[in-house]
Amino acid sequence: MKTIKFNSLIHDESQRCKTITQKGKCEHLAVEGVDRCSHHGANRQVESKRRHELDMYNLDRFKFKVGVDAAKTLFDEVLVLKVMLGTLLDACGDSDTELIIRHEAISNLVLKIEKCVTAMTKLEIIQQTMVDKHTVERYVARVLEILTENIEDKKTLNTIAFQMQLAFEEATKPEDL
Fold first, then answer.
1. In terms of CB atoms within 10 Å, which end of the chain has fewer, N or C?
2. Same-domain status, 88 and 138
């Protein structure tokens, strides 16, 4: 990218590179579409903007293909990555040369898919070992029924019920981070 010196007679101040150097404001024009000149990172900003636009395009393609409004879960992320991988492989066609040229991008997508699938598997395992609050409440109610059937002393029964309620509330309150 060619760097052009800022001239206050010709250019508006908003077109100037926003970088502050030791000598003061940068003396070059910002590259169109970003707020820096090529000396101060416009290339990175342009590339980042291009990547973001590509991500949004892929997400829109995914939404259209699957018919959902938003990709929010790991499962949705895997679907988006699979669409991206399919697009990349389709672009290669039958050409071995294209596959070799794009092998790094293909490998990266496959690794991302593998990470998401691994995370999904771990979450499923965790969810299967956890008991939800409703199940615990039903369990506590059943234990109280059993105790009521077998304990005659109402005072002792009330004490047990009260202590179980306190234990349940303590066990289900959110932990401080």
1. C
2. no
DSSP single-letter state for residue 39:
G
Residue 158 lies in a domain: yes
Does residue 41 lie in a domain region?
no
β-strand partners of 134: none
The token duo for 91 is: 């672009």
Q: For position 102, what pLDDT does the model report?
A: 84
How many Å apart are CA 22 and CA 16, to the nearest integer? 16
What residue type is assigned to position 88 of the chain? L
Domain that holds residue 148: 133-172
Q: Which amino acid is at 46?
A: V
Q: pLDDT tens digits, residue range 45-100? A: 777 788 778 877 776 766 665 555 444 577 777 877 888 888 888 887 778 888 88
Q: How many CA atoms lie within 13 A of 121 on its CB side?
A: 6
DSSP code of residue 173: S
| Tally of domains in the chain | 2
